[in-house]
Design goal:
single chain, alpha/beta, 10-stranded mixed beta sheet, 7 helices
Length: 434
């Protein structure tokens, strides 16, 4: 039976704030979605349909005009809403449901297809065995399962740490050989949590033979903004150990370029700068005098000004720094840092850095994490950021301020009588320079 892949990218996850549109975040010269499409096709998923929302479906269509798409009608229903919109359009095929936020290897998709064709199997769920807690869905396996393919009895979404039903974490790459049955159950279920699909899948597993397919390859789940750094590290580690410098790039003869480095068209590397690979430098970017770039992706048309250091970061595009230190940071587009600004990335006690997500403290499981900045932000001179601080889009941060907590979108941060004051921003952030 042929398989149609539904690639889900409709969600507007608040967990990813202050960044937006996870599938469209750039890695090298391609978006995450482009990378996902390459892996799907290499793994044998030939028939792909995007399931998007009103906020992103047109952008995705412009990128992939030949790939059909379905608009999710009710975004508030999450994954269940995506499937309620998409499954009625599927006729006689099996369905592979894939999250655009789960980055796995192409071989995993091939294994899913092969396993789903085995006799007596109604569906396949990709699962990875974990050694430490992961804030995701855990599979409940039936006691009569064999060691190779465990039969799935259900899914528990985000259990409390210490109460996980197994060590198998659900990766959203599922094959359903009877999608009509799935649709029938989805139409009847509901949940107060964001787990209606998992509730439906648990009901489906009670009288259907769903198996867990063990996956031991690389897996990155993009849930929170700092996960951009995990994928950055992964993609950089996959670079061949060589240098690829575009013929139009200008690299001063006193500059040092070591290791696996890609330097794209129109880049200028100024005197005495050092680029220590693995690194990627996007089109039109300038690396100023005496700069140090390490283990980072720097997007297009950035200016890394004199004496700046950028270490283990991902910069979107049109980012300007001036004698700035950025470590383990993620920066959106059209962001300018004033001279002397610093992103602290390491706690004094060297412990893991926490972040507040939707009012709850979340352990990032990283002991190094700098600042995460949304789009269209201006930061004054001599400004510092505590580890893990998040700055919303459309925000100004005045000079000589120590920012120790998250700042919402469209704010103006200043000092008054020695205290940090955050108020609404009434000034337009300058647009991207041509």
């Amino acid at each position: 039976m042929p398989v149609t892949t539904l690639l889900l990218l409709a969600g507007r996850s608040r967990r990813f704030w202050p960044l937006s549109e996870k599938p469209l975040w750039p890695f090298f010269s391609k978006t995450l979605l482009h990378n996902q499409m390459e892996r799907l096709k290499e793994g044998g998923m030939e028939k792909i349909i995007f399931v998007g929302g009103q906020h992103n479906i047109e952008m995705v269509h412009d990128m992939f005009p030949n790939v059909p798409s379905i608009e999710q009608e009710k975004l508030e229903l999450g994954m269940r809403g995506a499937l309620l919109s998409a499954l009625p359009e599927i006729k006689d095929d099996s369905v592979c449901i894939v999250s655009s936020n789960d980055v796995i290897e192409a071989s995993a998709y091939k294994a899913l297809l092969d396993t789903s064709k085995q006799e007596g199997i109604d569906g396949v769920i990709l699962a990875q065995k974990v050694k430490k807690y992961f804030p995701g869905g855990y599979l409940v396996t039936a006691p009569d399962s064999n060691d190779e393919l465990k039969r799935v009895a259900g899914i528990v979404e985000k259990p409390q740490e210490g109460s996980e039903p197994s060590d198998l974490v659900n990766i959203v790459a599922h094959v359903h050989n009877n999608p009509e049955k799935l649709l029938d159950i989805l139409e009847d279920v509901s949940s107060d949590r964001d787990d209606a699909y998992e509730v439906a899948l648990t009901k489906l597993c009670k009288d259907s033979n769903y198996v867990a397919l063990p996956y031991e390859g690389k897996w990155n789940a993009v849930k929170y903004p700092w996960h951009v750094l995990d994928i950055t590290e992964r993609f950089l580690s996959d670079l061949p150990d060589e240098q690829n410098i575009h013929k139009s790039a200008e690299v001063d003869n006193t500059a040092v370029v070591r290791g696996a480095v890609i330097i794209e068209e129109g880049v200028r590397v100024m005197p005495h700068a050092t680029i220590q690979g693995p690194c990627f430098i996007g089109k039109g970017t300038i690396i100023g005098n005496n700069c140090l770039i390490r283990d980072s992706i720097i997007g297009e048309n950035c200016v890394i000004g004199y004496g700046s250091e950028v270490a283990r970061c991902n910069l979107h595009s049109h980012v300007w720094t001036h004698s700035t230190y950025l470590g383990d940071s993620v920066i959106g587009k059209n962001v300018a840092f004033g001279a002397g600004s610093i992103a602290a990335n390491f706690r004094l006690d060297e412990g893991d850095i926490n972040s507040v997500i939707k009012g709850e403290k979340v352990d990032t499981q990283r002991n190094k994490l700098g600042v995460i900045v949304g789009d269209n932000v201006r930061i004054g001179v001599n400004t510092s950021f505590a580890p893990g601080t998040k700055i919303g889009s459309g925000t100004f941060v005045n000079s000589a301020i120590s920012v120790t907590k998250d700042v919402e979108n469209d704010k103006f941060v200043t000092m008054k009588d020695g205290e940090v004051e955050i108020k609404d921003n009434k000034t337009d952030v300058p647009s991207i320079r041509s």
